[in-house]
User: Fold these one by one.
Assistant:
Number 1:
Amino acid sequence: MPGPMMGGGRHGRPAGGKRGKNPKKTLGRLLSYIKRDYSGKFFVVLVCIVLGALASVAGSMFLRVLIDDYISPLLLESSPVFSGLLRALVMMGFVYLVGVISTFLYNRLMVSISQGVLKTVRDQMFSHMQSLPIRYFDTNTHGDVMSHYTNDTDTLQQMLSQSVPQMFSSAITIVAVLVAMLFTNVWLTLFVLLGVFVMLRVTAKIGGNSAKYFLEQQKSIGKVNGYIEEMIGGQKVVKVFCREDKCKEQFDGLNEELRINATRANTFANILMPIMMNIGNLLYVLVAVVGGTLALTGVSGGITLGVIASFLQLTKTFTQPVSQISQQVNSIVMALAGAERIFELMDEPSEVDDGYVTLVNAKYDAQGKLVETEEKTNIWAWKHPHEDGTLTYEQVRGDVRFFDVDFGYTPEKIVLHNVTLYAEPGQKVAFVGATGAGKTTITNLINRFYDLADGKIRYDGININKIKKSDLRRSLGIVLQDTNLFTGTIRDNIRYGSLHATDEEIKAAAQLAGADDFIERLPDGYDTEIDGDGGSLSQGQRQLLSIARAAVADPPVMILDEATSSIDTRTEAIVQRGMDGLMCGRTVFVIAHRLSTVQNADVIMVLELGRIIERGNHEQLIAEHGKYYQLYTGAFELE
């Protein structure tokens, strides 16, 4: 129930949280996307960054030339000629223009590169998510998974479009300025390096604390999103049981945790830049004092006014990228925290599928031999490759058998014990029992949503582990108690069961399920748009569409998990007639609490605590006066 109890449990464990963190490896993995898909563009970016950095250094160096070679001599002339100064200024203007164009170009290219990388990351993440086992989604909240696509990718976009080029630009500028400073004056350069060393120590100390809390902040955002997603989905239940205050209390707790982590992270992030700027300003003043002292005392020899002015500008140009790097550290740390969470999802083990038997369309040739065909024949066959290279085809009959099956969602807690059963082709097998007895678990095993702890399941005599999972599931039509519809038309939602279904087949499936009547009364009939999981439809109508979706797939085996539980008695009678037609000639597994819906089953299995305690048809079980008799007579009295 999506009530107050959902605030704890699953939220605390981000996917893959037990793995060790390696920021260098994460950053290298991110940059590999650029290297693989955008190496040419990134090379142009690097060239532009170098040109921009050199233009900036050239401007600082020009100050010395401007003052010592042009301005100072002109001040001593009675009739100064400014043509040389004008040529120098024009040349410098051209250098600055190159720098401006380079800066614009590399920023523009990085936007294109970053968005391309993010698209690739999102594509890969979504593609990999489709390969994950059901177990992953059982142990991770939907909101936390959604946070990977929103908050985590947003931090990556910030880093790739701004932080990465800024870091490269700053690094190249630092190298270029350092060379220029050494060329200008060694003693002043050593003094500046001493100040920069202090700045780096401060960055390392504050940045390290910031990194820790930014990672915690990303985890807290995932928890908050997960809780909000659950509360939206369970809003009716929350209101029915008047749990609004309790939910607010639990949300306040999660939100407070986010506030604390975000405050700690941003406190360190926000104080870093002002500290760095003030250290840079202090260093600027000290360089001016030291430079003036050296000039007056003549200790360093040959320090002119132009040298001091140029060196002051170089000092600012040197400390500025150091400050920028320290500022970008926070963005990079937060992005790496998001990237780690993204890569943890992408590194989650995919659903293992060792199957090699596939499902194909087949027909009988003139000699009566079963052969594969591309055309739709309504005959399905198992295509079985053998070690000697030969292929055999066996028509799908729908014979499903369990042999001594044990299963537990966790190894220490077994929920099915020694289950042995069989469903012959065309049989209707029903499972009844209390909630938690293991009915749905059995159908989950037929689909291989989970793998067995012990025992075997054979489908037409083939161990289901040998059947490719996608083909196994294509052979099974499923109608669940909880309906899931998708944004699109009614026609699209029914066609979801078979993407190649024609409009006529869709209408026939809807008629078979009893859905055609209400669909035709909708404003646009089969072209009526629905969204929000079909919120504009009643629960019964959504279930009818779910049944029609299974019918259009035309599978040899059907699994009906409380398929009519949300349909009223009158509608159930309509649907039951359609279901009888749908079940005709197919093996059917039915889970139902309404025992009236399973009376005509060929075999009824009564489960209790993961064991089959009774089996037989309705008359046999009534005659035994056992558990089924108690359930049936109790239900009858209630009706």
Note: Residues 33 and 39 are 9 Å apart (CA to CA).
Number 2:
Amino acid sequence: MQQSSSLPEHNSQIDGTPKLLQTIQQLRDNLWLESSLNQLQNSLSDCLMSFAHPMAQKTATEAEILQTVVNELQNALNVSWVAIAQCQPQAVEAKICYVSNFPTLKTPIPEIGYQQGTTLGLTLGAAIRVEDLQQMKRQKPASAWRLVDDANGLMTWLIIITPNPNSNGVALNSSLTPLRSQFITRTIQHSNTVLTQLRQIQSWQQQYQQLANFNQELERTNQLKNQFLANTSHEIRTPLSSIIGFTHLLLAQGYEPEKQRHQEYLHIIQSSGKHLLDLINDILDLSKIEANQLEVQWEIIDVPSLCRNVLALVKEKAANKGLKLRLEIEADVKNLLADPLRLKQMLLNLLFNAVKFTNSGSVGLRVTTEDLYLRFSVWDTGIGISKENQSLLFRPYSQIINSGSRNNEGTGLGLMVTQQLVQIHGGHLDLESQVNQGSCFTIFLPLQPAGKVLEAIEIKAETDLEFSQQISNYSASQSALHLPISPSREILLVEDDLANSELMRIYLGRLGYQVTCVKNAQEMWMNLPQMEAAVILMDVNLPDINGLTLVEQLRKHPQYQHIAIIAQTAMAMKGDRETCLAAGVNDYISKPIDLQLLGSMVAKYS
């Protein structure tokens, strides 16, 4: 009886052993799952925290996080290979961008089935079809999974190759298969969370950097404002103190015109007053330029005449220092579209500086053409400018001291204003200088309108367009008067001066006309038969023939008698209009050209 009663107890112990082993195995499997996930989370968190820490020198990226994911997956799953492929949303193929590290140097490159029985080695940079990745995702068990798409819209795929035998040569327990799937799923979830956090941190840091940059710019602007006010206050007080002080002396002593001392007082007061006025004008100009409110009047300028006038204003200062003034202008330099007042201001600023820093020798102005630019070079034989000082020249209130001169007054704003005015004209300012060998400042202004000049012409054209259309409608209603009206929008412009030609071409072009420009009679006769010109704009002073003579020749050709001809000339004396009309022109416009009047005239005949 005792033996029979002990048998069930013995059988019970035997039956309990597999359950106990199964429980132990489950505990081991769960321990593996949790420890592997903890290891992955710690690695990704360390990577993320190194980036989020404000004092961190390292900059984490999505690449580092994705590389960490493949490495940790390979270590935890003990598989042959883990890779990540990326592609654009509509792409046919993805590119393998990340692969796990080789466990040993002898590890072979893994392969996967690819394109109907062919295989692909999972090497960095290899291509794999998106269709195959989708198929790998649908397999049981899956070997490809989608990760969250990155900030640039790239699709990201995780690829895991079939497990290898473990380090003891024994295949992984089949019980790990569901845990393996669970581990991969939770890894993807955690990776997506970390990538989302990374992008949020990057967004915050970008906003923080923008705010920091804004604060730095605000601080810099505030410092510049304080510096500007301090310098301006100092500069204004200096001449103002002289004016007040010497005026006080004259009042205290009683002004006597014959006293030389009193005459000197007045000269100082006058000089200080001019200096104060120049300073205020420069400050106002600079403020208007920076606020984009400087009024500029664009005109066709006679360059040689303007340059001679500018040198006449510098002549006295140069003579007082015993300096020779020189003017060199190339023969083909004629006109330029610019603001005459501002161009004169630019040249005077440079010339007065040249005189100021030249103790002996010469100061000159050279005007030449280079490509499509007109060059105004102001040169001197003065003290020159060192490389260190050249970098300071175009800062407000920066001045170079001429040790050889007792008079070093100046606003310190002239060069900065000049540079800004040059840029408004669509040009640039260059400097060449060597210490004790002189300096040369060169203003490059485009012969063809550019920058603010071109913008001003286009704005004016748009403003005048409605008016021009009204004039055109009026002209159509006058057809009963047998005016030479044509439906054509083609204009032939006969003009040898590039500045005038470009001005009219751009303006009329913005009004909707097709403008063909020619420079002489030969080009006119070549182009005219190929056109249906409604209007010919004829310059009277052409290089090869008088424009009025050309009009008379045109009127002798029956096929050109119907074309309206508008003479445009600098002649504005009494009787000049009648002379032009007698030659056969339909209308007359004098230079400098009034663009609105030109537009209305052309509309009248087209």
Note: The mean pLDDT is 78.
Number 3:
Amino acid sequence: MQEQDFVSLKARLPLGESNFASLRQNNCLYVDKTKLIYELAKDRIPKFLSRPRRFGKSTLVSTLEELFTYGVKGYAGHDSYFKGLAIEKLWQDEGQYYVMHFNFAKICYNCATVKDFEAKLTRQILNFAQKFKVKIPEQALTFDEKFDCLLNALPLNSIVLLVDEYDAPLTYFLESEKSDYELISALLRSFYGLLKDNSGKFRFIFVTGITRYKDAYLLTAGNAILDISQDPTFSEICGYTRSEIKTYFKDHLCFAAAQIFKLPLNKIDPLKIEEFLDKLALWYDGYYFDACCSTKIFSLWSILNFFSSKNAIFDTYWYDSAGETTLLRKVFFKEDYFKILKLFENNQSVLVDLTKFKTPSPLPYMDPFVLLYQLGYLTLAKPYLGLEAEPFTLDVELKFPNLEIENSFTKLIINNLPSYDPTLAQILKNCARNLKEAINKQDLSSFVHELNRCFNHIPYDGQVIENEALVNYLMGLFLIIILRKNVENNRHEASGRPDLIFNCENTTVVIENKFIPDDSEKSSQKALLNACKQILEHDYGNTLLRHEKLWCIALVFSGKKRQIIAFKVADLT
């Protein structure tokens, strides 16, 4: 494929554009979600949807805005932007509606105080009044008085209200002065209370956000809003499914597969496409947004960015653009990060109380794993409702959805470690010179000494290291920070998966860890022999990717002593 072909493929990707009409007008790829949008909008029931950032909520809201403003027929001298989409034949409602679209994240932007937010919200309400030719009386002074006047002036069943990022103000003022948080809470309570008081005026209300929690006044103001966030009917409404990627991104798939497999384009057959999709799924698929786990979802932002890279690079696109949010820093990092590292135990899954999951506490007190789920770092590991769910379950099991998030989580810890645990950060920094020298000389004693210095820093009280998975993760994390190199955990090779593998200058280092709960000589030597045997039998690290030197080492970690107690270069002597 020629350079100009890739340029034309990239031009069709809807990166950075969430306006539905603009996407259709500019012939950008639009994955047709309108059958689900029809199901969403065909009745008058107010609905709420939570999804992580960068999963297509804003495009969904924009599509609804276009639908209720203009319907599915052409207007202003052009064809309908819904021409050829599923909803064109389904939508029968051609009423003229007063559409009010509020994006609370945009309104929050550059607001120093709650008064600033209220002023910007009031301006938007007055803009709607001017657009709808409604005169607001001069005696209406406050934002809620003006909004109430606007709602009262419009006919019954005539208003469509769309609120994007409803939770942005609560997050924005979460750690400001206590009075500010109380003020924004009161303001939002008034806003949503007016929706309840004027419920007959609305043809449709749709609200999106990232989080859902008990002090979100949208859910407690008595509006009978239906939370569809985990409804299987709408599991695919944001993000992409595998079949959608195959249908809408055929040319992008072929081009990217040719780069990955280093083959001419005419050699990319359906089997190669499926093989490539499997690789893509390992990195970006795996989200379950419905309680029954009925459909796996790919990260929309990650897929679009992957296809926009000519060299088809697997990277942490979602995290790099929006993964480390203000909310995450304000709430998640109040927790003990070794508690959070429990994610890497028990096959990288955790259990949370079902009640806490379904009706989370207010933001300052929310379970950190529930927050990680809502922000997009975790997904359901299995259903908690439906035929496949365990009967009478009181817990929800969560896990990382894919490799992108596993790698992003590591970046998250690394980026925040200096402020989170400055002592450990300094220890790791000081280890760099000695560890690199130990690798260069293949001095295993010095190498282990430096790693044990890192493990020795972990506080004893309450910080139990009780399995190999956590040892692997912690060791990998230490090595990434010390060496500033990529360290792969359980990399897939032809005959197995080494625990850790990385390159440092001219050396490829392979580590096979074994965990023992005690510190007995007999147990440690048996585990050490097994580790060596595993390395040699599977020929770990001896691939085309290896560097000039290959250093394969076996380590035994004692849970009792909380350090490496036995080690050797892999051989069976």
Note: The chain has three domains: 31-234, 242-398, 421-569.
